[in-house]
């Protein structure tokens, strides 16, 4: 297993377009998280899944954002009608359930909205 | 809500110097505490963690002790190397149903070590 994989690594899109990112977690991990990181800031929690169930969404996740994790494996994060303020690094992480578990992060998808 | 405050950078040191990056937190309950590192062009990697008060996490010569009385988790290394140049993030985890889940991060501290 090569860890958490995210695609694409970079995405440039025009304002108003829709974009979709994919995350493939470590195979035995039942928890999957999305974070957003802007320049000079730490990652901010967006949402998380336990298996296929989306259990929590941050207030940062406006109604233009939607995340899915069908079948509890890979996940997609879609942003509709992108805005310049959506430009950021989108990070995916996965972990097992349980105390003292570690979240493993992917390398992220860098979105630039022009 | 939970929050993490860490020393603002950038921090520039010479090789073999002593490193401290301060981190304090505000949390309800009993969070676990973490230091993550992000090397240039790479993803976040867990550096060390501590899960309860007075625990010391350590890895690659780095150490941090979970101090509940001062709500702190300062990162230290006795002798830094050029290869330690990276961004360091302090983080804490909420717990749900008895297990760690989402992380709250500090803003990160850029460390540059010169030869």
What's this, in brief?
The complex is a heterodimer of chains A (114) and B (115). Chain A is mainly beta.
Describe this structure in words.
With 114 residues, chain A is mainly beta. Chain A contains no helices and 11 strands. Chain A has strands at residues 5-7, 10-13, 19-24, 31-37, 44-50, 53-57, 65-68, 75-79, 88-95, 104-105, 109-113. Chain A is globular. Chain A starts with a strand and ends with a strand. In chain A, 35% of the residues are buried. Chain B is built from no helices and 12 strands. Chain B has strands spanning 3-6, 11-14, 19-21, 23-26, 32-38, 44-50, 56-59, 62-65, 75-77, 86-96, 99-105, 109-114. In chain B, strands 2, 5, 6, 10, 11 and 12 form a 6-stranded mixed β-sheet that branches. A 4-stranded antiparallel β-sheet of chain B has the order 3-9-8-7, with no helix packed on it. Chain B is globular. The A-B interface holds A 4, 31, 33, 35, 40-45, 48, 55-56, 91, 93, 95, 97-108 and B 4, 32, 36, 42-46, 49, 51, 89, 91, 96, 98-108.
